[in-house]
Amino acid sequence: MYITDFLTTWERQHLLELASGTFTDSNVVDSSGGQSPHRFRTSQSTSLYRDDVVRCIEERAVAFQGYAVPKSHVEPLQLVKYGEGQRYHFHTDWFTDPANAKTSGGGNRISSFFGYVSVVNVTDGGTNFPMIEAPHDDRWCAFIDCDEPWEHGVTFRPIEGNFVYWENLLWDGSGDNRNLHAGLPVTSGQKVGMNIWTRQAPLTKELRGEI
C-alpha cells in the first residue's frame, strides 16, 4: 500500500535534528539473534529517542493498521541513511530463523512501513520489490520507476514524506516471500529513510528503549 504525506515537512525536519550525530553503521540480525554489520547492508542507521513527536508517529502507524495492539508492539522507530554507492541487498523484514521470532522477544514482524525523511539530490536508490507486479498505469510513474523492466517487479522512488506499507506474515503466521525487497544503490546524493516495524507480541521496555 502506498501512502503519500505520511510525515509532514515539520516532522521530517524535527526527526533529522533529533537524529543528528547518532548514526552508526547499520546491522543485520544474525542466526544467534545478535546484531552485527554485514556487507549486504552498507548504510548508517539510528533508533530515535521517543519524544512527543516520535510517539505521535507511532500512534499514527498503529491507527493506520487498525490492529488492536498497543504501541508496546512497535519497535523503536529507525532512521537509515544512504550515501553514494550504499545499498541494502534483497531481504525480508520478517525473521527467517524462528529463534529470532520468540514471543518473549516480541515475536515476528507482522508489518512494515518504509518511507523517506530526506532526499537530497538523489539519483537512483529506489526500493525494489522483485516479486510484486508494477501497476500498468502511467499515473504511477510519479511514484515508481516506470523505466524499470516489468519483469524486475516494482521500484518505488525515494520521495520525501511518502511511505510504502506491507504486511509480512501470511494467515498461518509464516513469512510472505512476496515481500522480498532491496534498497537499490544510490548513484549520487543522500537519502534518509524510516523503518516502522510492528511485532506479534509486546516488546520489553529494554527493547523499546524505555529504560
UniProtKB/TrEMBL annotation:
Alphabetized PROSITE patterns for the sequence: FE2OG_OXY
Keyword Cell wall biogenesis/degradation: no
Entries under Gene3D superfamilies matching the protein: q2cbj1_9rhob like domain
Molecular function via GO: iron ion binding; L-ascorbic acid binding; procollagen-proline 4-dioxygenase activity
Gene Ontology annotations for the cellular component aspect, listed alphabetically: endoplasmic reticulum
Pfam families: 2OG-FeII_Oxy_3 (PF13640)
Domain Fe2OG dioxygenase: 73-200
Keyword Ion transport: no
Protein name: Prolyl 4-hydroxylase 5
Keywords: Dioxygenase, Iron, Metal-binding, Oxidoreductase
Necessary cofactors: L-ascorbate
